[in-house]
Structure formats: C-alpha cells, structure tokens
Specification:
It is a single chain. With about 170 residues, the chain is an alpha+beta fold. It is built from 5 helices and 7 strands. α1 runs parallel beside α5 and α2 runs parallel beside α3. The relative contact order is 0.20.
C-alpha cells in the first residue's frame, strides 16, 4: 500500500506542474549503468541476466530524478515479467534526432487487448506465476515523464516473443 501511495504522489506531482521544475544535462548511459548496479541483487534473485548495449554518452536535458524513476519502472516491469534463466536487454541508440532507449524482455508479452490500455492510470496485468498485480501507476508515470521531456513512451510485443518498452527523448 505504501508503494502505491508513493507512486501515486509522484505521478500527481509530475502531472500537477505540467512542465519540468528542474532541468540539467543528464547522461542516459550513466543512468542505465546506475540502474543496472542497483538492480543487480533483484536480477540475481530472479535468475535473470541484464545485457546493456550503450554508447559512450547520451546527453539529454531533463530532470535526473524523474528520468531515473521512469527507467527504473520499465526495468521493474521487465524483471517482473521475465522467466528465470532469461535475459533483459537495455539498448540505447541514436535514432534520427532523438535517443531511443529500449528495454526488451523474454516474457509472455502483452495480450493484444491490453496494448492500448497499459499507459492508463491503475490499469494492471497479472504477473506470471500468480504474482501480485502492480499499482498500475508505473507506466503512466513513464509516459508523463517522457511527455515532459519532449519525448514519447511506447510498449509493444516483439515478433520473437517478449515485450519491448521504448522511451524516446530528444538529445540535450
């Protein structure tokens, strides 16, 4: 319950302002590395491997806390939906005039009926193995953070199986 309340408060604060309160140069590569380090115990406990394909640097202008939290939400979902023995990939690349960060898992993917709803507040899918449902606030938070940074968040199923969350952000 406390986690749900915390997420709801973070989302409400972001939505209330409608613009970024703080802007600084943020290196998405360093954010990804920090997240990988922080998630290492959870990945190990879940029997998962995190593979990162990162450039040397990926500067964006934005709020470091919000970007880190958004990427953390995406990684949390990938961990929750990935079966043991699989890998999760973080791929960061320059696409046209934007940075594209993709988190790819090898889980069951998203049912077709849910693809249009995953960014709705409080919409949540059951976790594999009868795991508890999430608060349904993580992906709406990601979408709002992307919007505030002039970017976009999407989620799709991969042809080879699993899901791919993509965060597109303009360069800094």
């Amino acid at each position: 319950l406390t986690e749900t309340i915390d997420q709801l408060l973070r989302l409400a604060e972001v939505e209330q302002h409608g613009w970024l309160q703080r802007r600084a140069e943020v290196d998405l590569v360093q954010v990804c590395r920090d997240l990988a380090d922080d998630a290492s115990p959870r990945l190990q406990a879940a029997g998962l491997v995190l593979e990162a394909v990162l450039p040397e640097r990926a500067p964006v202008q934005g709020d470091p806390f919000l970007l880190r939290q958004a990427l953390s939400n995406l990684l949390d979902n990938a961990i929750a939906f990935s079966p043991a023995g699989c890998s999760i990939q973080i791929v960061l690349s320059k696409q046209a005039q934007a940075w594209q960060l993709s988190l790819r898992d090898q889980g069951p993917g998203v049912p077709d009926y849910a693809l249009e709803r995953v960014f709705e507040r409080f919409y949540s899918l059951g976790r594999p193995g009868n795991g508890p449902r999430s608060s349904g606030l993580g992906l709406p938070f990601v979408a709002e953070v992307a919007r505030l940074h002039g970017g976009q968040a999407t989620l799709r199923n991969r042809p080879e199986g699993g899901a791919q969350a993509v965060l597109v952000l303009p360069p800094g």
